[in-house]
């Protein structure tokens, strides 16, 4: 029956034609559902758009911080690089200096004094022997000026400063057997290069030699370090500024830098003299010569009488075993008694 009715409706166009001239009452009904359908479609689409917008916002929120974080990270890394760069360059330019005979203070007192009195920052400090330290300073105009001044007064004493330079045209040979002669050493080291001058002195229970060459040596010259000569393994290193220094201690209280310097100039050219220690009965001086072999010459004055008191001369922190009789450096301005005077007076 349902099929017949539907078929009848399909086959009967009369009602549609009959209502053709009449107002279409179902027009609104047809439109309304269309609007409703559209509205529904809009409503159905709207949540998707909101969801899309939310997801985009969430995605943006998640994605947006990443560039910011990356940017911050890049900025931090860049800042770190900018901060690190000067430190590396400073470390490369840091001056390694030697502080000689700072005998009446501690490492902390020394570093504090350099900072407070001279505005120089100490990076590291190493004690190498009694009263002698190796320092690493931050490289600044003030630290360079301080090092170039050589003598710095701290706590009533002179501190000797200089760069830790090495010179490949000369060797310092220590721990030499007491029986070794210059001829034996010359035969050993002439294989390294042409020897300009050699000086051999007794130092404590062993000997020390300064050997200078006509040309700079290669690093393989240090392969002789530890070589066995006679009954001892010798120690070999390149020369440094420290090797130009001697210490005059137990010097009379009335001797000053000004009064000692003329005597020292009779030995050789003097770079500087510093009064490094003052006690109740004597003074101690550090002297740096221009030539290494002048140091050996200066050791001959160990035990010499200067202004009524026998001095003690040390080299490289070691006492000189050989003691001169009463010979002291001669001053051309003083009377020499035809060259036989061995005791200097005021």
TrEMBL record:
PANTHER family: SERINE/ARGININE-RICH SPLICING FACTOR (PTHR32343). SMART domains: RRM. Residues 1-90, 322-346 are annotated as: Disordered. The lineage of its organism: Eukaryota, Discoba, Heterolobosea, Tetramitia, Eutetramitia. It comes from the Eukaryota. The keyword Nucleotidyltransferase does not apply. Residues 19-44, 78-90, 329-340 have a biased composition (Basic and acidic residues). It comes from Acrasis kona. Residues 9-18 have a biased composition (Low complexity). This is CBP20. Keywords: RNA-binding. SUPFAM superfamilies: RNA-binding domain, RBD (SSF54928). GO terms for molecular function: RNA binding.
């Amino acid at each position: 029956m349902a099929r017949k009715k539907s078929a009848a409706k399909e086959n009967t166009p009369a009602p549609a034609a009959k209502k053709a001239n009449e107002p279409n009452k179902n027009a609104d009904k047809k439109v309304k559902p269309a609007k409703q359908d559209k509205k529904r479609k809009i409503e159905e689409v709207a949540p998707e758009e909101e969801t899309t917008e939310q997801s985009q916002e969430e995605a943006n929120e998640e994605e947006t911080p990443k560039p910011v974080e990356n940017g911050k990270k890049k900025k931090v890394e860049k800042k770190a690089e900018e901060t690190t760069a000067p430190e590396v360059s400073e470390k490369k330019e840091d001056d390694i200096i030697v502080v000689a005979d700072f005998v009446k203070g501690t490492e902390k007192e020394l570093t504090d004094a350099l900072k407070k009195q001279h505005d120089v920052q100490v990076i590291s400090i190493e004690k190498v022997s009694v009263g002698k330290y190796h320092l690493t300073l931050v490289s600044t105009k003030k630290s360079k000026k301080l090092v170039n001044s050589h003598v710095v007064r701290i706590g009533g004493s002179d501190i000797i400063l200089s760069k830790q330079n090495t010179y490949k045209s000369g060797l310092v040979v220590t721990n030499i057997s007491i029986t070794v002669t210059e001829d034996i050493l010359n035969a050993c080291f002439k294989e390294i290069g042409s020897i300009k001058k050699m000086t051999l002195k007794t130092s404590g229970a062993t000997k020390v030699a300064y050997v200078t060459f006509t040309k700079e040596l290669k690093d393989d010259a240090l392969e002789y370090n530890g070589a066995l000569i006679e009954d001892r393994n010798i120690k070999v290193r390149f020369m440094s500024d420290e090797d130009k220094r001697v210490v005059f201690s137990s010097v009379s209280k009335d001797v000053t830098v000004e009064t000692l310097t003329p005597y020292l100039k009779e030995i050789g050219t003097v770079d500087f003299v510093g009064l490094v220690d003052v006690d109740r009965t004597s003074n101690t001086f550090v002297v740096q010569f221009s030539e290494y072999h002048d140091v050996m010459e200066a050791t001959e004055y160990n035990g010499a009488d200067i202004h009524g008191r026998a001095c003690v001369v040390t080299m490289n922190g070691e006492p000189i075993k050989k003691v001169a009789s009463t010979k002291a450096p001669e001053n051309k301005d003083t009377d020499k008694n035809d060259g036989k005077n061995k005791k200097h007076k005021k």
